[in-house]
Design goal:
- Helices cover 37% and strands 24% of the residues.
- The chain has 13 helices and 15 strands.
- It has a nine-stranded mixed sheet with strand order 9-8-10-11-7-12-13-14-15, sandwiched between helices.
- The longest helix is centred in the N-terminal third of the chain and has 24 residues.
- It starts with a helix and ends with a helix.
């Protein structure tokens, strides 16, 4: 079996090398010409017809995908139900579908094929990865998020993680259909966004923060100027014509200066924004976001990793300290006045994603920021592996100046 697999790999590599030489020596081939060239070379190499029709077709398709698309991964990329693709070296590919992890039966022919794909992906996102800079975040042409770690940092071969997003942008209506929040909560959030409250979405990995941010953006008034700031552009905002999308740039090529989120926030403030949307706060950029919120730029949206709303407060304090040495009391004052509402998301053990809490930052008492929880998800039972529960309204919005100014 191993000998047969090796023979197929050698066949694949031989045909690929021959077709590459033809492409170098002639004009750029169309898809039809490329497929014809692959089939011709396959006929030459397999002149004794040792391969079945199905196997020849499979090899031809794999070669075509390696030239024009994403090679071995193309079938996974085309399956809209797959939400995550994980590559652990050339021989190990896994994917997540409907919340379950599976091992993919196909593999890369060798490490070189995997590295070729990695360089193609980086070229699409205008990024560079090599031994000198072995870690990179980028994206596919459809907006899917990609993280790449090369060997020897990744001991068992290059590691690639692809987080995929639905081609149809997420709406609040669809989130309600999925049971992620109640209609009453959606209406409440709509009014908060329209009134210009500063909202911050928190949650763990895979809890749906970016997806929820996309859904919230549909409530932004259409006449406003919106600027998004991200490490790697993932947001899919709909219906906003006056939209500027900014993305960080990593160092790498000679003379290329890195541009970080902090730089982009400072630049965005000179671009007359109605609202700033920061894809994710991870560090010192929290200083600049809070400063912007506290100097008249209301209605901003952002996300951050945390296990709860209270945990997000602590993380924000730490992030501010990364960028500026301030007394904790001053930092808490900046947070309490710069962020109005926390929306905390969670991925439950049945793999469903829900809004677990909506909490208002009501102010500082005894040197601690106090949260006013308005909505909270309460688990009640578990039936056939699915968690049953409901959202309780446990408080009322206290700071109503923006709410009343918007006419609500």
């Amino acid at each position: 079996m191993a000998k047969e697999k090796l023979s197929e790999r050698n066949l694949y590599l031989k045909i690929k090398e021959t077709v590459l030489k033809k492409m170098d020596n002639t004009k750029e081939l169309t898809d039809e010409e490329l497929l014809e060239s692959i089939e011709q070379e396959l006929s030459v190499v397999d002149k004794n017809r040792l391969l079945s029709f199905e196997k020849r077709k499979e090899i031809a398709q794999s070669l075509f995908y390696s030239f024009r698309k994403y090679g071995v991964l193309q079938e996974l990329i085309e399956d809209e139900q797959i939400t995550e693709i994980m590559i652990n070296g050339a021989d190990n590919i896994f994917y997540e579908k409907n919340g379950e992890l599976y091992r993919y039966e196909k593999t890369f022919s060798d490490n070189e094929e995997l590295l070729d794909l990695i360089q193609s992906i980086c070229a699409v996102g205008n990024r560079m990865v090599n031994e000198a800079s072995p870690i990179v975040d980028t994206r596919l042409s459809d907006g899917s998020r990609v993280n790449i770690v090369l060997s020897p940092i990744a001991i068992d071969g290059a590691a690639v993680s692809i987080r995929r997003f639905s081609k149809e942008p997420m709406s609040m209506k669809r989130l309600m259909q999925y049971g992620s929040l109640s209609e009453e909560m959606a209406e409440f959030l709509e009014k908060l966004v329209k009134a210009g409250y500063n909202l911050f979405v928190s949650g763990g990995t895979g809890s749906g923060k970016t997806t929820f941010l996309n859904a919230l953006s549909e409530f932004i008034p259409k006449g406003e100027r919106v600027i998004t700031i991200e490490d790697s552009a993932e947001l899919q905002l709909q219906g906003i014509s006056n939209l500027v999308r900014l993305e960080t740039r990593q160092a790498g090529f000679a003379g290329v200066v890195p541009i970080e989120i902090r730089d982009l926030i400072k630049t965005a403030l000179r671009m007359r924004p109605s609202r700033l949307i920061v894809g994710e706060c991870r560090g010192a950029e929290a200083v600049d976001l809070l400063s912007a919120n506290n100097t008249g730029h209301s209605g901003s949206l952002g996300t951050g990793h945390a296990n709860s709303s209270k945990d997000m407060l602590r993380r924000l304090e730490t992030m501010v300290l990364m960028g500026m040495d301030l007394p904790v009391s001053a930092i808490r004052g900046q947070i309490a006045s710069g962020i109005d509402i926390f929306i905390h998301l969670g991925r439950l053990r049945d793999r469903s994603r829900k809004v677990l809490e909506i909490a208002e930052l009501k102010g500082i008492e005894k040197e601690e920021i106090q949260l006013n929880v308005i909505y909270r998800f309460k688990e009640e039972a578990e039936k056939e592996g699915k968690i049953q529960g409901r959202w309780e309204k446990v408080g009322e919005l206290m700071h109503r100046e923006k709410w009343e100014a918007a006419g609500f």
